[in-house]
Amino acid sequence: MVKTEKQGFFSLLRIAAPYLALTTLYTIIILAVEEHFGDHIYKIPGQVVSVFGLAVAFFLGFRMNSAYDRWWEARKIFGELTNTSRSFVVKVVAYFNNPKNVSSTDERGIQRGVELIRLCKLYIKQLKNEMHNNFHPGFDAENLDLLKAHAVNTDQKISNEILIAMTISIEHSFSQNAPFEKSDLMQHINRFYDVQGKAERIKNTAFLKIYSAFTKIVVGFYVLLIPFLIGDIDLGGEDSGFEFLSIPIMAVLSTAFLTINRLANLYAEPFSDNRTSVNIDKIIETIEADCDVAIKKCPSL
């Protein structure tokens, strides 16, 4: 997870380095051909550079902003999941610690509080797995027993099955004297559904495929034309050596356009496994740790 500008710089360098190498090689080849056959044999007027470059910058700017909005929305969704999970677990602990809230006809009684927290942990872990396209992961024996005890069908969509099991457990756990407590926890289940729906909407909605393809073609075409548009730099005459400055200038310019387009592609997939994606693994680990701490602080459960 990038936490400092220094780490961000090295991450950016790893993305940009291949583009820098390729564009430098390409620029050298084009300028070598120009030097061999004669200076400025295919130099295009500067107005073309300005107009075409402005259009490309406009496309990239819109694409980058849209991709970042998508990434930030994904981060807010899992921030909401963190808050909802913590609130749910704390209220489970508080409500089940009061024996008056628990239904006297339920055999498992107060033990359902622990099971609800464990189901919550399984749910958030399963949601993470589904965001990483792992819809049917393996479970250890303890969790398998828990799922079987709550009639969770692992052949179906497991996250939905767990939420159904949590809903049924809440319905059976509380006495008639605790309508508020039951209603409150049911509202948290609704929030889980809401978070899951938002996350799946981003994951399952392709990000402007046609626009993405068009931008890629325009950027690639512009980068290929840059050496033809700019040419070498004749400062101080042919023997001054300053004309070689055109190589790093054009390479850096080409790399900037290609890197921005690449970053837009990466940010548009916030749940993929890359260095710019939302670090949902770390978020889920934090939620699981909070659940464990809540259980340890409630010995009566």
Describe this structure in words.
The longest helix is centred in the first third of the chain and has 51 residues, at 46-96. The chain has helices at 5-37, 46-96, 111-131, 141-149, 158-173, 179-204, 209-230, 246-267, 280-296. The protein starts with a helix and ends in a 5-residue tail after the last helix. The protein folds into 2 domains: 5-35 and 44-68 and 218-276, no CATH class; 73-204 and 282-296, no CATH class. It is elongated. α2 runs parallel beside α9 (280-296), α3 (111-131) runs antiparallel to α9 (280-296) and α7 (209-230) runs antiparallel to α8. It contains 9 helices and no strands. The relative contact order is 0.18. The chain is mainly alpha-helical and 301 residues long.
Brief synopsis:
By secondary structure, the chain is an all-alpha fold. Helices cover 72% and strands 0% of the residues.
Give the topology.
Layout: H1 5-37, H2 46-96, H3 111-131, H4 141-149, H5 158-173, H6 179-204, H7 209-230, H8 246-267, H9 280-296
Helix pairs in contact: 1-7, 1-8, 2-3, 2-6, 2-7, 2-8, 2-9, 3-5, 3-9, 5-6, 7-8
How can the largest sheet be summarized?
none
Low-confidence stretches: none
Share of helical residues: over 70%
Per DSSP, the total helix count is: 9
Topology order in helix (H) and strand (E) letters: HHHHHHHHH
Content-based structural category: mainly alpha
User: Average pLDDT across residues?
Assistant: 84
C-alpha end-to-end distance: 36 Å
Our Rg estimate from Cα atoms comes to 28 Å
Strand content: under 5%
Name the overall outline. Answer: elongated
